[in-house]
Amino acid sequence: MENILQSSPQTSLQSFRTRIAFIEFIELTVLGFAFWCFGAIVAINDPDVSLVDQIIFLVITEGMLLGSWAIYNGYIRVARAGGKIVDVGLWVIASILTSSYTFWAWTILDLNRLFISRRFYLGDAPVEYAWSAQSKKVRKAWEQAQKANSL
Contact 56/149 with Cβ under 8 angstroms? Predict the structure, then answer.
């Protein structure tokens, strides 16, 4: 009975490695915290920087990283559901509203996703990227096949 109720660490690691969004979330949270630690070390001798300032910097850093990542994931899902015209339209609107920030953020997040998918991701679902219409098309077809198989 104990073997049934307890999951092995290997099984938990396998389950973790099948969720690319969770891998990215953990990675970006750790990177944001590491960046904050670096900033805190640099500011340690500055008497003008208080603990409150450092906490605000941590919240802003994590908020920017995870917020950009959430918008990136939202864009991918909406673009996949809407097709190529919606994909291009959303990109143009985001570029107008954010200037070049969208381009650089989504490019960096696409490169990060490529690295994560090659190194850590073991899931069955195809990985999709903001700059690849083909990856969104493949993921949409895969999801439709999953729905057809479950019926």
Answer: no
CA separation (Å) from 38 to 42, 115, 119? 6, 23, 26
End-to-end CA distance of the chain: 33
| The pTM of the whole model exceeds 0.70 | yes
Q: Please check whether residue 95 lies inside any domain of the structure.
A: yes
Please count the structural domains in the chain: 1
The per-residue pLDDT for range 1-22, each reduced to its tens digit, is 444 445 455 556 567 778 899 9
How deeply is 136 buried, as exposed, middle or buried, from its count of CB atoms within 10 A (0-12, 13-18, 19+)? buried
Q: Does some domain include residue 139?
A: yes
Structural domain boundaries enclosing 99: 19-150
Which pLDDT tens digit goes with each residue over 59-72?
999 999 999 999 99
Domain membership flag for residue 7: no
Rounded-to-integer distance, Cα 117 and Cα 95, Å = 26
Inside any domain, residue 52: yes
